[in-house]
Amino acid sequence: MKHTKLPIVPINLLYTTTMNYDIKIVGEEEDNGLMEFDRLNLLTASTKEIATMALMLRLRGFSEITPDRQIKKALELKLRSIVGDEEKGTLLTIDCHKFASTISGLQYDIFKPKDEILQMTPMSLVIDTFRAALSEKKEDADIDKPLLKSLMKFKRNFTGNNQVMYLSNRGSIPEVRLTKEDFNTISDLEESIPEPRKVIVNGQLDEMKVSKGKLGLQTAQGMVHVFSNDNDLIQRIVEFMGKEVTITGKAHYKPNGRLSFIDIQEFRSPNVNDRLFSKSPNAMTARQQLLFQAKQGKKLNPLSEIVGMWPGDETDEEFAELLQGLK
Question: pLDDT tens across 253-263, in order?
């Protein structure tokens, strides 16, 4: 009898690329263990949105980017089962693959590490994002304002004040426990991040810092990441590679108030005034910094935090009032 020789598949790919995750809901005020169809749709849609935006943030540096077909495929979440129990609540089991088996061949954003994201899954990104937003060190979290808004939408999955939701993968990483009150913390963090604002910055495009849709601009204050989702604009601006250029765009910020990147709107050859007056918006204005400190409940030396950040949008009188208010 002739035997067909089967291809050898590495054991680590057979057993580690597919992961199981649980979403457990307890404490329902009524219909505990049952889930209405509209609510199931809301839960799955909001979970998928967070996973998608978190992945785009890791890969492209900004969460509010529409993924291409291959990335959408990598973000598949498959509902394996729903089990309802009047005492134990509702348990959803979800299957998804590690990114190592789905996006390993993609062109990565060179400003982000590759290996860490390859070992994650869509659901582990959701868990990691909630954990980062609720962490005591959330100002250092790899998270942006649109992604925080997406986390806030998840609050609509809670139908009562006593409800608790657990996100886990059965012990291999710490689970996340969510209550309705936790979204107050997330809301405070989202509000503390400065809104995007228009800036003008001048510098030299660095050919060593170019990736898909994102470039490095070497300014007097250091390297600034500039981004555009418009391929035509990117093709035109790369003509300035290795040369000085003046860019007008919207500055987006991280939870600690530091600049994340600038979304390019226009660019041109620099003139004398650009070199003199443009600056890298590397930090919040004084007013934004004080708001951030207040939101975090911190009592730090205000001068040590504000030095190097002013002038911003404040007048001399407004800045004096801000300092007076800290005494």
Answer: 888 778 888 99
